[in-house]
User: What shape does this take?
Amino acid sequence: MAQQARQPAARPSAAAKPVRWAAEAVAAVREGVRPHLDFSAQSLWRVDRLIEELRREDTPHPAAEDTLRGLGAYAGEVIVRQAGAEWWTAGGDHWVRTPDGRLWEPLDEAHRCFGGHGSLRLLCRDAMRGRR
Assistant: This one.
């Protein structure tokens, strides 16, 4: 009897939009930065710096909205991949749920970063503390 090839587990439908937003954000960043966005926790240093650059350039919030959403989704996807978390959604909002049951808001954190009051790197670090 031949063994069937093992299929990778399907991602929950809640992941569809954030994964797409993250991929779009990676594709949109400058050539010199793109190779460093490898979905590692360390790559979030660069993401925080990208958001800081937007803020220093006085980019209007509405003009930065899609970029912030994409970079927040990227950070969420880092947590998903590094901590074994999963995307959750309700009412159009997206969160990441870590295996310890905590919910994280990386898309909102990207907006806090833009306002000078947050860090996607630190959010990821905190989310991964509960990793089993």
